[in-house]
Every structure is written in C-alpha cells, then in structure tokens.
Amino acid sequence: METTGFVTADRVAEHLGLHVITVYAWAEEGRIPSFKIGRNRRFRLNEIEEWAMMQSHSKWVQRRRRALGAKRQARKKG
How far apart are CA 61 and CA 59, in angstroms? Predict the structure, then answer.
C-alpha cells in the first residue's frame, strides 16, 4: 500500500482486514485517524500505517506484561 495521499474507508478496510462499517465507526469515535472533507471521510495512508503499528506494539506490550506478571505470581506460589 502506498504511504502518501488520501484514501476512502473502503481502501482502509481492505488494507486492515476490517469491515468498512467498522472503519467508519472507529473514525467517528476517534479510534482511528481520519478527517472530513465536507460530508466525506478521508484517511491519510501514512497516519493509518503509524496507527496500525502502534496498535500492534500496544498489544505486544500488553501480552508481555501479562506473561511477566504470571511468572511473578508463579514464583511467589512456588
């Protein structure tokens, strides 16, 4: 996916593997970066890429913290 320019929710949905309704809902909620031109919602590809990387990193950090917490609990019990 090119990383410059503006795209529609359809293109973002295809790229992220989401339903287009989900993309619109997340955009309205502010969960995914977007902006409106008149009545049309648009997305900057570079912002979507950065957002996706941050989401992926956040999930990794959360999983890692849970795993470390579980190890600590096991040590306390053992």
Answer: 5
Over the stretch 36-75, which tens digit does the pLDDT of each residue have? 999 999 999 899 989 988 888 787 777 777 777 777 777 7
Q: What six digits make up the tokens of 25?
A: 């809902």
- What residues contact 32, with CB distance under 8 A and at least 6 apart? 12, 23, 26, 43, 48, 51
Q: On the CB side of 54, how many CA atoms lie within 13 Å of its CA?
A: 9
Residue-level length of the chain: 78
Residue 40 carries which DSSP code? E
Whether pTM exceeds 0.85: no
